[in-house]
Amino acid sequence: MASRFLLLALIFCYLSLNNNVYSIQPQQIIPNLKFPAKKVDPKLIATACDHSKGGEACVKWLNDKENDPEISLIEINDMRDLAFFALKKIEKEAVNVSEAVEMKLNNGSEVLPPETQQGLSDCREHYVPAVDLIEEAVDSVGNKAFPDAVKFLQDAILDLNACEESLKKITTDPTTKNPTKADQYATMAINHRDVLESHVVITQSILNLAASGGGGGGGAPAAAPSS
User: CA distances (Å), 139 to each of 37, 48, 146, 149, in order?
Assistant: First the structure.
């Protein structure tokens, strides 16, 4: 009997000392688990891009699910899903513009002219509500409230466009010929804004198509936007 208790005690000690062997976490079993994105029906994208007159650039953009789980895992089965997907992409791009402007404003190695400082500050103030409005459009599409989504996106575009003139005011030190970090940030802001502008046009077209019930989106065009 004594030997039996001794054996059980030894087993208990061994398990206690090696507890980490029995507490393996899921991420240790399947590290960096990734789910392959479902391929989108080429006819659906072709319909959307024909409607937006976006050409090959539109096709390429809509086929790019990016290395972002929030975007890459979106399933696209109809025009409504495609509108949701496009809105999520321009939401991310709008944030990129906002961050580039923020970096330009917060670069301590450069003293910005007062008009540039003011212009960029104005731009930043427009992008905060613009991103919020795009998020509202995303939620509305998720709830199949297409007229609301169209209204939110139209309002967001007003804010996005208000930043365009502000970005044109970005200047760098004219006395230096060497590129600085501030120059790079300025270029990033302008480039991101130009890319976003073209994609917003595509997204607005897709959203209108889904709202009208065209392209297999299941829209509801009869309802008016809620106040």
Answer: 22, 21, 10, 8
> Does domain 38-211 bear CATH number 3.40.50.2300?
no
pLDDT for 114-163, tens place per residue? 777 787 888 888 888 999 999 999 999 999 999 999 999 999 999 888 88
120-130 burial, b for 16+ CB within 10 Å, e for fewer?
beebbebbeeb
Q: What is the pTM of this model?
A: 0.71
List all residues 6 or more positions away from 175 whose beta carbon is below 8 Å from its beta carbon: none
- What distance in Å separates the CA atoms of residue 146 and residue 137, rounded to the nearest whole number? 8
The CA distance from 43 to 117, in Å, is: 46
- DSSP letter string, 134-185: HHHHHHHHHTT-HHHHHHHHHHHHHHHHHHHHHHHT----TT--S--HHHHH
End-to-end CA distance of the chain: 81
Using CA atoms, how far apart are residues 38 and 59, in angstroms rounded to an integer?
16
* Cβ-based neighbour number of residue 147 at 10 Å: 17
In sign, the C-alpha dihedral spanning 208, 209, 214, 216 is negative
- Residue 163's identity, in one-letter code, is C
Q: For residue 166, which of 98, 216, 85, 83 has the smallest C-alpha distance? A: 98
Q: What angle do CA 46, 58, 185 make, to 5 degrees?
A: 165
